[in-house]
Design goal:
The chain has a 7-stranded parallel beta sheet with strand order 3-2-1-4-5-6-10, with helices on both faces. Helices cover 34% and strands 15% of the residues. The chain is built from 13 helices and 12 strands. Helix 4 runs parallel beside helix 5. The protein is α/β, with parallel strands linked by helices and 385 residues long.
Length: 385
């Protein structure tokens, strides 16, 4: 069972956020950015900039006095930031608009294959001070070791597929190769940031949003496991702030960026969500093995959650010490939940009727009813549940 669960987890973490259709973003997606410490405004190039994380970087950078240029195809949220310089092109084969330009740093939020990252890094290297590449914690292929650091081994492509660009299958390995490609083009001038599950206003995947929305609806909520499984998430606004801190302070190297500052359990996260959305929801904790038997999957059906087991001991325990020492800070999970719900409520009724992650209310109700019937009195429910 553990081997199958680990295979599922690896599949679930293949960058689903990267392939989801993007929501329409508006001003409500962005909270008040936190100030930086740059002595002068930097000239920043964002490769992307109009999806989920990118806009948060743009908003925070402008608040800190930096001058922005966005490079993208102009297909995603093209109306965002009308007063910001935009260069049109394609990461995969059309970089002409970048030729002859000079920036202090580039933030690459849209690189998934080493060939594409190498092309942009090679072109920009002669007139660029720093390449900030947004990677992922999925570069760590072995989730059995607790407390992994930036120095632990990363995934590799199998020899028989050493030239593969199949991002769905080899997401972590390809991101690891992207890191190496940037460093090869710009030795000593690269910052690789490996975030955990990125959450908050504007998230197109609903992988965290499910919880604020469901808890705000109140009533009895199916909660997975025993509540003690660890969780690692990071608010996109906190990640954006750290990205800018690394450019302002010229921090080079590799940084894991999971949050929060201290250990967070599933029970702690759900309690923070309930506090943030000010709801009267009641949590019913259902064991992981029972959920597995019923086909209720971790991560997709019950987002942000992976049950702790021999093959997953290290999944949500990755160290963020190095990044915290360099300025990574985290807002309370309750604040993230409240802001995420407020953003969700600004979306169209059609969008809100079709969440992209999480259990439907019908499946949740059926699963809880089956659990009550099969194991009456065993589920750990809070008083009043």
């Amino acid at each position: 069972m553990e081997r199958g669960r680990r295979d599922f987890i690896k599949l679930a973490l293949t960058g689903a956020a990267s392939f989801a259709a993007l929501s329409t973003l508006g001003p409500s997606a962005f909270g008040a950015p936190r100030g930086g410490d740059a002595k002068r405004g930097l000239r920043l190039l964002i490769l992307g900039g109009t999806g989920f994380l990118g806009p948060h970087v743009v908003v925070a950078a402008r608040a800190r006095g930096h001058v922005l240029t966005l490079f993208n195809r102009g297909k995603t949220n093209p109306g965002l930031f009308p007063d910001v310089e935009k260069l049109r092109g394609d990461r995969d084969g059309d970089l002409k608009a970048l030729e002859g330009r000079e920036w202090d740093a580039v933030v690459d939020t849209s690189g998934y294959t080493p060939r594409v990252v190498k092309a942009s890094a090679d072109l920009l290297a002669p007139k660029l001070g720093q390449y900030v590449f947004i990677s992922t914690l999925s570069v760590y292929d072995d989730t059995r070791k607790p407390g992994m650091t930036e120095d632990d081994p990363v995934a590799q492509l199998p020899p028989e597929n050493k030239d593969s660009e199949d991002v769905q299958t080899y997401y972590g390995a390809l991101k690891a190769l992207c890191e190496k490609a940037a460093e090869a083009s710009m030795p000593g001038r690269v910052t690789n940031i490996r975030p955990a599950l990125i959450v908050g206003p504007g998230d197109p995947t609903d992988r965290f949003t499910y919880w604020p929305v469901r808890v705000a609806a109140g009533g009895r909520v199916l909660a997975p496991g025993d509540g003690d499984d660890p969780v690692q998430i990071i608010d996109a606004r906190d990640l954006a702030a750290f990205i800018l801190t690394t450019t302002e302070r010229r921090h080079f190297g590799t940084f894991n960026a999971p949050g929060p500052a201290k250990k967070l359990t599933m029970a702690g996260m759900l309690e923070a969500v309930r506090t943030g959305v000010d709801a009267n929801a009641r949590f019913s904790w259902v064991p992981a093995d029972y959920l597995e038997k019923k086909g209720v999957a971790p991560w997709s059906d019950l987002p942000a959650w992976v049950p702790l087991g021999p093959d997953t001991r290290g999944f949500a325990t990755i160290s963020n010490t190095r990044a915290v020492q360099r300025g990574l800070r985290f807002r309370p999970a309750a604040e993230t939940a409240a802001d995420t719900l407020a953003w969700w409520q600004t979306l169209s009724e059609e969008r809100r009727a079709s969440p992209r992650a999480g259990l439907s209310r019908e499946r949740e109700t059926a699963t809880l009813a089956a659990w009550d019937k099969e194991r009456p009195g065993v589920s750990r429910m809070e008083p009043g549940g």
